[in-house]
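Here is one chain, start to finish.
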Amino acid sequence: MKKNRLIIGIGLLVIFLVWKNYIPESSIIGKYVNNNTEPTLEGPSPIQNGVDTLRLFDNGTFKSRTWGDGTYEFEDAFFESQIDLTYSYPMGKAGYQMIAKKSLLVNIKLWFNFDLNFYFEKVN
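Its structure:
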C-alpha cells in the first residue's frame, strides 16, 4: 500500500512539474507590461517614465517602445524557456534574450533581469 502511494505521489509530482514548466508557444502571444523601477542596459525605461508595453504577435513579430518593431523566436525547454528578440537600431541589427516562466496561476513573465526582479508580465 505504501508503495502505491509513493508511485502515485511521484506521478502527481511529475505531472505538476510538466504543467508548471511547459509554456506552449501560442500562450506567449499577447501584451506585456514592465515592472522595473531602475534603468537597465538595453532594456525598458523605469516605470516612473511610463510603462513600456511589449506586444508579441502570432506571426513572430513584436512591437515595443524600447526596441521598436522586430521579430522574435520562442524556444521552449523543460526547465527554462526563452524568447529571443531581434530588432533594428541605428548601427544595424541587435538582439535581446529573456527567460519565460509561468506562475502557478499560469501568469507568464518574461524576465529581462532575474537578479533585480525585473520582468514583463502578461496582461492579456
